[in-house]
Specification:
1 helix; mainly beta; 11% helix; 8-stranded antiparallel barrel
Amino acid sequence: MKKAVLKLCLALILALSCASKSYGAPPSWIRFSFEWGYSQMFFRSYHFNYISDDGYRVDGKSSGFELWSNGFASGKLSLALSERLSIGLVSGYRGSWEASRMIPLMVELNYYSRGYWSDCFFGEIGAGVGFQEKKSRGGEEPAVLSRLGGGYHYVLGGPFSLDFKVALSSVFESPRIPSPTEGYIEMHNVRQSRATHCALEFSLSLNF
């Protein structure tokens, strides 16, 4: 059900963007964006606790700097609240760590220092959830996502513009715990599994 809702949201974004091309420009207060980016994780904290097959408790913790590269792509449907402020619904596909991939659903708020129709610097803040792929290591619970960043907004002409972004993102998830033998620890034996990932993101967004 959750994945169906996410697919519906993404399909709506794509359908509206195609409709705007076929039947003319949308109202100036409706905007579409497609973003492609690179995410460099630099910090990870992980704590797990489970009951082994032999009946004893296993507990482990790790925290520190760790490098892992991921990519992401997303679409956004935005509503202009004013010349400088807009709010948008974002969905797409992204990785967060090794064998951990998800479909995000986020709400983002953008502020353009000189207004959306001018070349200017902008700020962005967003939060939401990420629904893990069925075979992903990320686990069954939705991850909590946050993002804070900004960049430069460059107007190409007409309705088109580019956003060059740098952002700090974080992912809070409950990953599956690898078994010492094969596969993952059964969920009914897991007492705790919490991971936090922090990453620096670089991306390009096409807006229209």
